[in-house]
Design brief:
This is Sugar phosphate nucleotidyltransferase. This protein has 237 residues and is an alpha/beta fold. Helices cover 27% and strands 32% of the residues. The longest helix has 18 residues. The protein starts with a strand and ends with a helix.
Amino acid sequence: MHAVILAGGKGVRLRPYTTALPKPLVPIGDQHAILEIVLRQLAAAGFTHCTIAIGHLGEIIRAYVGDGSQWGMDIDYATEESPLGTMGPLLTLRERLPENFLVMNGDVLTDLDYADVLNRHSRSGAPLTIATYHRKVHIDFGVLTTRKGEVVAFTEKPSMDYRVSMGVYGLSRSTLEGYTPGLPLGFDELVLDLLATGRPPHAYEFDGYWLDIGRPDDYDRANAEFTSRRSLLLKGA
């Protein structure tokens, strides 16, 4: 099984932690970087090959990870010379990838079964599989619905339930046909194109542990929770 880890971003929202370190290498707990946890999880799930798309401070990632032999994996790299969006780096890799592979952000902390995501994607025949997570947002205000200058409905401090992308995907190489390598391609653009052409992505619903380490408070929470969740996140790794 093959995974692609997207690790080329600048991690602007996580500054100052990412001033001198790429976001996937910020430490979690006393011993591990986020990317190391992800690679241990992938290896334990049976992934044997991984391509890491690097950009900002990418040489630090390459020096830290090496060829992957310390995790029993074969790891290679793709360098992003200019920002290409979420899916753009995959276009230059397309000929190096199998028909079905896993794609994920390099800053995700979760106990998701990565192998099951890829296997479900392969069986579904869908062009793209999106791992999704349930979120609930509480709105602290009374919400008004207006029409032509009149209030037609009112809800006091409602809650909104929805599912969000976890930053983990099963993808088919053929889904990338028609896009130009070297040009930016965002996840949003790919999904909208698939919907517009009547090829809806498959949703892999997950309700375990997931934390997207995008902001300093997310990072602080990850460190606070890691000790108690270490056995969950690194089981079998």
